[in-house]
Design brief:
By secondary structure, the protein is an alpha+beta fold. It folds into two domains: about 90 residues, no CATH class; about 100 residues, no CATH class. It has six helices and ten strands, in the order ααββαβαββββββαβα. The relative contact order is 0.13.
């Protein structure tokens, strides 16, 4: 998640100063940040912003919190968890997928992920997109899914595994070597043919 958060900052998401909607009310009531903040900039590198710095102005100039800094990362994770809890997850329809007999789901170093508008590793704000879905493999035969619609979803464990394998950074695991090998070998082909991601 640290790598993903930094990549979102590097790709200019910090420059988007026009929010789609205001922050959740609970965040507006949160205590103001009172600490030095390690920041990154795509062109200017790393810099420590002391307490009292105008971080909103820094963000407009392309600075974003360095997620390799433990304090920044933990703070971000808590804020994002709050967004998921009060904003994104309640808007989605949740259901369970059970793998057919003899077919299994894999898990990865990113235990829960999402795809939006055909893209893996899209920032959490993309969960607003109507095509967005969340995948949370629970065990080899059970997967939680969240989508904006309750329409039937024709998808196979192999297609799901291709997505999970695509967002993995370090490892994936499954109940059989064949399941893992198939997920790794077929991730690009399955994604293209199923239209699950780009």
């Amino acid at each position: 998640m640290q790598a993903l958060e930094n990549s979102w900052g590097e790709n200019g998401l910090a420059l988007n100063s026009e929010p789609v909607e205001p922050p959740p009310e609970g965040l507006l009531k949160a205590t103001k940040l009172q600490r030095d903040v390690q920041m990154l900039h795509f062109k200017l590198g790393s810099r420590l912003f002391p307490v009292g710095s105008d971080l909103e102005q820094a963000a407009r100039e392309g600075w974003f919190p360095d997620m390799h800094d433990r304090t920044n990362f933990l703070e971000s994770v808590h804020i994002q968890a709050y967004y998921f809890q009060v904003r994104f997850f309640p808007r989605l329809k949740w259901f369970a997928l059970h793998g057919p007999e003899g077919e299994f789901f894999v898990v990865a170093d990113r235990p829960v992920g999402w795809v939006a508008d055909g893209y893996i590793d899209a920032p959490p704000s993309s969960l607003r997109h109507p095509s967005a879905y969340v995948l949370a493999p629970i065990c080899r035969t059970l997967l939680l899914v969240a989508r904006h619609t309750s329409d039937p979803w024709l998808v196979t464990p192999a297609q799901i595994n291709a997505v999970v394998a695509s967002w993995a950074h370090e490892w994936i695991a499954g109940p059989t070597e064949a399941t893992v090998r198939s997920a790794l070998e077929n991730r690009r082909v399955a994604l293209a043919s199923a239209g699950l991601v780009q």
